Amino acid sequence: MNEFLRKKWEMAGLSDDYIFNKVMLDYDICLEVLRRILPDLHIKKIKLPNNQQEFIVAPDAKAVRFDIYTTDEQGNHYDIEMQVADHHNIAKRIRYYQTASSMEAYDKGQPYEQADDSYVIFFCNFDPFQLGQQRYVLHKHIDEIPEQIIEDGQTDILFNVPSLRHDVDPKMQAFLDMIAQREVEATDPLVVKLKERIAVVKRNRKWRSEYMRRSVYEMDQEMREKKIREGERKVRDGKREILEGNRELLEEKRELQKGKRELQKGKREIQKSKREIKEGQDRLKEKEQLIQEREQKLHENQQTIIKTSIVAMRELNIDETTIKKEIKEKFNLSDKKIKDYFAE
Q1: β-strands 140-142, 135-138: how paired?
Q2: Which residues pair with 83 in a beta bridge?
Q3: Is the C-alpha dihedral spanning 113, 114, 115, 119 positive or negative?
Q4: Which tens digits make up the pLDDT trace of 162-193?
């Protein structure tokens, strides 16, 4: 077992989405957590929690996979999610999860007013809206009358787990403290169950192996994405260098034109001496030589960038046709030049 992964498994707590999911599969724990989140609903019982349930809103739409999904005796739908990293898309993510959950609340042929209520609950290891709140409860409202809530049966609840505001009920605070691995009152029955359940999860060899495989896959994905980003960065840098070279070349050409105009002006005024004319011609020749050298260097730089881009994309196992297309479009090359590069 990889030492890094072994330590990661041993140190993982409820803030790890995999551990959170396995712990929340416990019926009693899931029921008690929902009761603490929504005490006013007086939930008596729920269906056995479903882990990683997938919903497809439409055949060509992005599928959504819920961490923990269940319903209660009143038909209310609950999606509970552990959000580890901030990808800066939490609002749009909640919207899609709520859409998928709400679709389950509408039975075929059922009147709209009889649709079940849907709750999407996110435990975030960061402040989801950067507003300093410990809990965010989201409903639709009328813009002109902000206090007027639209009772459409949809409720989104987000918890800022790292927050130390203690604005929630003490029982709810105990659960948040468990997630954040802060000191918790050991006499709380839920805390006792959570610790026991975490121990059970950690002893499960099948789950441990699954955790390892998933961690390796995620690290591979992260490395691949890093290489892709690095390749894209090199291409962007190369394009910036070419653009800068073009600007410098244009400036040199402008200076050359200016020099020619000055020379013509001097001729019109009948230059005072042949020496001055000779010096002016020499300066022009030097500038023309400098431009030629810059053009050659720019051409060589472009060749190097193109070759580097081809190698980088080949290392990412991108097919030759796609590489040729990308190189042709980004560097505005003819088919012959593209063929020459790939013939090397």
Answers
A1: unpaired
A2: 124
A3: positive
A4: 999 999 999 999 999 999 999 888 889 999 99
